[in-house]
Design goal:
The chain is an alpha/beta fold. It has a single domain, classed as Rossmann fold. Helices cover 42% and strands 16% of the residues. An eight-stranded mixed sheet has the order 3-4-2-5-1-6-7-8, with helices on both faces. Strand 3 (71-72) and strand 4 form a beta hairpin. The structure holds adenosine-5'-triphosphate and magnesium ion. InterPro entries: AAA_dom (IPR025669), DNA_Partitioning_ATPase (IPR050678), P-loop_NTPase (IPR027417).
């Protein structure tokens, strides 16, 4: 699942790490792939990602097996991360001249998943994208089956969304026919403002089947957690932010479960 929105600061990374943490805490094996040169997801998961660390850069540009760069999150067993280092900032340009430049991440992920046994396999792979529609994001779209779009409950939220959807349509036509927008999550919801509820209503009206019922409130605890190298689920498990991400992850898991498994729950 690729977490994407070319708009910056809408909660992509926060959503990736907290949903991943919630899924892992419930006993699932989860992999977060950080393909944003900013490395924010790696930071939030407490994963070292200074320049010398083997990273997703080596996987994408140098064919290094994905398994060689994975690190387990120190606080949450079962949660793994392929970190991004600052080297990745150059990858956008380096990729242009490489063979199969759009599908390098897909190949690495598919090869790794095929090499895993049933007991160690990942239940979810979440890819945290940079705020652009460049080749790194294209690699994420090609590697994934689903797109998960976080939308910030602010006035400009819907601007740019049609461009994102057009791009996804283009990827579907040319590179990855199975790709679909499966999930939309409203983030940084501020219940005190009409603006937040108006934006939320509008998004729900446009995408009635995709928007999770759970909305993530604006919460100081959520924004503090990364500075301690933690997700909000370990930083302050009883905060409204942690509870809402747990709820969102539960919704997600129930939606993606086969109909027979989720029936009656
Ligand atoms: P970028 O486009 O730079 O990758 P992003 O889409 O990944 O950004 P985040 O880094 O997740 O966005 O969030 C942007 C900022 O907003 C961060 O400082 C984060 O801590 C803060 N933030 C995210 N979600 C919330 C929330 N629900 N309440 C308060 N602050 C939040
Ligand atoms: Mg980010």
């Amino acid at each position: 699942m690729t977490i994407a929105n070319q708009k910056g600061g809408v909660g992509k990374t926060t959503t990736t790490v907290n949903v991943a943490a919630a899924l892992a805490q419930s006993g699932l094996n989860v992999l977060v792939i950080d393909i944003d040169p900013q490395g924010n997801a790696s930071t939030a998961l407490g994963i070292p990602h200074h320049a010398e660390v083997p990273s997703i850069y080596d996987v994408i540009t140098d064919d290094r097996p994905l398994g060689e760069v994975l690190q387990e999150c120190p606080d949450i067993p079962g949660l793994w991360c392929a970190p991004a280092t600052i080297d990745l900032a150059g990858a956008e340009i380096e990729l242009v001249s490489l063979v199969a430049r759009e599908s390098r991440l897909k190949r690495a992920v598919d090869e790794h998943l095929a090499s895993m046994s049933d007991t160690t396999r990942f239940d979810y792979v979440l890819i945290d994208c940079p705020p652009s529609l460049g080749l790194l994001t294209v690699n994420a779209f090609v590697a994934a089956a689903e797109v998960f779009i976080p939308i910030q409950c602010e006035y400009y939220a819907l601007e740019g969304l049609s461009q994102l959807l057009n791009n996804i349509g283009m990827i579907r036509r040319h590179l990855n026919p199975r790709l679909e927008v499966s999930t939309i999550l409203l983030t940084m919801y501020d219940g005190r403002t009409n603006l937040s509820s108006n934006v939320a209503d509008e998004v729900r009206e446009h995408f009635p089947d995709n928007v999770l019922r759970t909305q993530i409130p604006r919460s100081v605890r959520i924004s503090e957690a990364p500075s301690y190298g933690q997700t909000v689920l370990t930083y302050d498990p009883s905060s409204s932010g942690a509870l809402s991400y747990l709820e969102a992850a539960k919704e997600l898991a129930l939606r993606s479960a086969p109909a027979s498994a989720s029936a009656g729950s």
